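Reopening this ticket.

The earlier resolution said the output was attached, but the attachment link was broken on my side. Pasting everything inline this time so it's all in one place.
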Amino acid sequence: MWNNIINTALLGTGKRQLSVADLPTDLVTVAEKIIGDKSLDTETQFLHLASVVLSYRQSGVNAVNNSGVPLQPAPPEERPYCNTAAIYALQDALDMDLLPLVHYWLEACSDKRQIVVPEYIPVILDTAVSQKRIRQLAMDVCGKRGQWLSKMNPDWQFPVVHSPEERWQTGSSEDRIQVLEEIRRSYPGMAREWLQQTWSQENTAAKTEFLKVMRINISEDDLSWLESLKEKNQKVKDEIWTLLKNIPGSFIVQSYWQILQKAITHGTGKTLHISLQLPLDKIIADSGIIMMSNQKNISDEGFILYQLTNNVPPSWWETHFNADKQEVINIFSNDDIGKRLLKAMIIPSGRFRDVAWVRLLTQLTEDAFFPDGISLLSPEEQEEYLLRMLPGDPQSIIHFMDKMDGEWNLKITREVLKWIARNPYQYTRNFFDKHIMQLPSAIADELEKLGPEEPAYQNMWRNTSEHIRKLLSCKMQITTAFT
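Inline output:
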């Protein structure tokens, strides 16, 4: 019967047509009615007959009875289900297809030691299939029923979470980098010891990536190992130099300082005397210092001194000049080359975590944004600096804020959104989708006031504002539901 239908479909009704004799006795009456309806062409008659036969086949099929497959009922849950408000919030986050909000929901539910209602388990597990970072949370909030159900779908059988040691020894390259970063943040010495143990077995690409992780919490404790490394690959050597430049006691930073001490002095009246003796030792060039200026208005000497100054702690100048911080700034400010060298001190003030120098130097700079070291300042000082630099370099400020943890302060958010409203094509809805967790909820009431004056952009901002309100509303629903 079904083969006749398939053959007719392949040949076409112009060459072959179904007849009543091709169908089961139970369908004769309805088939005669369809074939006898002259208002239908042969193609339509065929489709009607095929649909009737399909329904007939499906209604007559019995489920396979396999007694060899044991199916125990799901074990009882040990934790309470989340409330209805939480489910509504979850549905909104899923409807908007926003992983940050789904992740936020899962964290909130897990923190409250609650679980999701059973009908949402498949949705959450399906989402976790493509999103590795939420898998552990997903399994946690799906409770006992989720564990039971996941055994019936290979896609939901996520890899077991191993201990950090096991992940380091047997994990993928990506997983090993991740676990080394986690350990480096909490136990920097342990991370270094792990890397020392496997260093000789690592390939060039792995060594390069692992050394980048070592930038986290770099300290004098790492110096002995780093200075003992003898690598041939240039990329690996470059990463080692980068790490050594972050340690004041390293031989390379000390070498830079010895050159600067001889090259920059001051006499009576606090005037600078600058004289660099060239050529320098080959190790200085090997470490990454460029010997020829790439700018016409800056001499090779000035260019080299700028790079060297960029790699030593600013506080060393206090000892060198026997002066306090403000006096050092005044000395450099009275000389044209000195003014450029003063700007070179901003990055190392952050790199060497000197809060006092970061605070002073960020107050002096108006023509360029320097993100290094801002995290050392208080939230109030950070906001003041970002607000001051926003008009001159808004995109760099927004890029820096991308990486900030937690919600943005309301004042800086207000100013950033004002700029975005005037530049709607650079920051679309996707930007707000990714950064909804950083937007303060209080900004929802001010969105209309932040709109652009340009008529051409006003309608676009209204649409964007409505989208932001929906995002913030969902975030607030989640927060309220688990409060």
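Reporter confirms the inline version is readable. DSSP finds 27 helices and two strands in the chain. The chain has a mean pLDDT of 92.
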